[in-house]
């Protein structure tokens, strides 16, 4: 019988997944904001959001965009409590994917009815980091004004 691993909880406004390449992790680290990582391996504790968040996700290669969303992200969003707190998506990708560049973000945004806030390539540039930092500040400020 397998042991049930308790979920790690987070109130970080940035939740991200990064594969072993760590491109997405490097991008998120450059933002300099509190963030929580969806575990890479299933044997690790699950992650449970405790507040509104923006998801930063890489796009996996695949035939015509199939299997573009990492399975760990699918499992995270299959938790209805996590999905209910998702407020936006930022997608990483590789322009070598052509028309499927950052398609994981497009798919998640459409399925969860949230905005795709930004796209960046690989680990992002200094301009990407600046744009996302400013954009997130404006995004959360606008949300707090509406509340």
UniProtKB/TrEMBL annotation:
GO molecular function: FMN binding
InterPro entries per the UniProt record, alphabetical: Flavoprotein-like_sf, RNR_Ib_NrdI_bac, RNR_NrdI
Coiled-coil parts of chain: none
Family: Belongs to the NrdI family.
Task performed by this protein: Probably involved in ribonucleotide reductase function.
Protein name (record): Protein NrdI
Organism ancestry: Bacteria, Bacillati, Actinomycetota, Actinomycetes, Micrococcales
Gene from which this protein is expressed: nrdI
